[in-house]
Amino acid sequence: MSVAEIEELRALLEEVIRLRRNVKHAETRSGGRIGAVRPRHRESALNLVHYTELRRHDIRDLQSGLAKYGLSSLGRTESRVLPSIETLIWTLTRLVTPDGERTAMPPGFPDGGELLARNAVNLLGPNPEDRSTRIMVTLPSEAATDAALVRGMVERGMDLARINCAHDGPEAWRHMVGHIRAAEEATGKRCLIAMDLAGPKLRTGPVRPGPRVLRVKPVRSKTGTVLEPGRVWLGAAPGTLPEKASETSPATAPSPAVPVIPLDDNAWGGSRGRGQTIRLHDARGARRTLRVEATSPDGCLVALDKTVYFTPGTRLTAVLDPGIGKKGHHQEYPSVKVGELPAVEESLLIHRGDSLVLSSDLAPADSTSVDIHRIGCTLASVLADARTGERIWFDDGKIGGVVTAVGPGELTARITSAAPQGTRLRAEKGINLPDSRLTVSALTEQDIADLEHVRELADIVSMSFVRSATDVRKLLAHLDPGRDGNLDVLLKIETVAAFEALPDILLELMKWADVGVMIARGDLAVEAGFERLAEVQEEILWLCEAGHVPVVWATQVLDTLARTGMPSRAEVTDAAMAQRAECVMLNKGPFINEAISMLAGILGRMQDHTHKKRSLLRRLRAWDHDVPGATEAGTGQSWS
After folding, report:
1. What are phi and psi of 614, to 5 degrees?
2. By CB distance 3.0 to 4.6 Å, which of 337, 475, 537, 554 could disulfide with 585?
3. Which pLDDT does position 324 carry in this prediction?
4. How many Å apart are CA 605 and CA 131, to the nearest integer?
5. d(CA 521, CA 528)
6. pTM over 0.85
């Protein structure tokens, strides 16, 4: 080795020693906070502090210098920071120190990977047989009444079930849990239960509803030919709505797409016969004819070949076939009127350049407003927290703006982001204020009440809207280590404030036994900006690995598949990236079982290729075409 190379290595050694000094100083400064965590998390808290300090320095030049000599560039040190630095110092010292003056090998340290694996098992349960990443699934409301649905999810690979306390209620939650326990017994598989506390609801207020009218139309070809008639159910909503009746028997398959029209006498619909004709004049005065396709005691299914506008009070009159009435005329039966119908949901059409006033007044907004709009805010206290120049987003980032004025009980925003033709803003849509220091507590009175049910039913309590270590402290204050020791804690990181305070949040969280973090990428993308989401989610993964904290990768994983039955290419790649977390969450959808099966397969295959930031170089058979005995190219077998 040349003199110049020795000098370069000495300079690298000095820089690494300086880095170690900074890391140790950070340890001293944070000694009190490290000592406050649970003893079992002490090493993890120490490593978290070390990593946070390491990432306060730009060491890219140092990394390039180390890589030049084939040395560790500290690029994968998350789970064991100081041991990696100490080992690197020892190696550099041996390279630049004459024989006889070499230092001893640094002492052994706890294995960070083993600590993370232990914590993941404690929080999320053991690894499934065929993969190292668990699958969590959000239960739909139907899970309270459909035991077969829940059992199918468990059979396909659901390892944890998520119940959102923002929906349904305690009775439905109990039924969901009962179905999960029954599925466990039937399948022999364990399925943990996580329950989300809803947190504060920062949403748009009501919009004045439109007319009470229901429009039903057939499906037509481009030339106007009816391809499929429109259908409605007349009468009381049955347990299963028929989709379509044959000539010999009525269909009984459920069809949620068929609207239900109540009658002022629902028995009238049940007394109709298949093939019978019903006449009416709709809301426009247009004469229309309906054809009965199927009946039940609750009502009847009718088809129509022309568009019909139903309104409350629309009179329906049934007739017999020609020739049955007097002198060959149709014989009419007593008529019936359409009952109450829901009002049409209205919305505000927002364009770029418009002004939007967000108000504490929850009076229904006027949907006909132009240029200047006004709508209520369900959490009025946040209005005073906003400042001019700060960003505001609506409906998962579909509409964005900048706050231009803040006054008593309201703020005004200038819209800077909307679709070119305008974007509809409806009631009950989320509001994000990523730049504002919101003073609202992440733990509401309703959350505290729901916590009693969570204690009874769940294995894990998830906290929403976390913004600071103070929020975590409030939750832990409502948990008793003696009574609630078996209840684990999962924090949803969904705000920029939580991301920026994550080291402090994790140190506070480590005061509880079994803990984890969920990357809630929906709100996080809105707050951080879609272009920054990839960067932010990576940094959360790194920091949690440094603290040996298990991560749940959530929001829109295989979402298109779960909703439509067909995945997009981008979301398959996203699902593969999710394998680096300890758990992946799927949202509900009609094709959720297919999504569970595909995700399980993707995670099982990817575990042989990656672990966190490290690529695993298992043998690849894709290019073995010239190797004797290898599978012939093009057979689809060589790359399995």
Report:
1. -100, 130
2. 554
3. 44
4. 8
5. 10
6. no
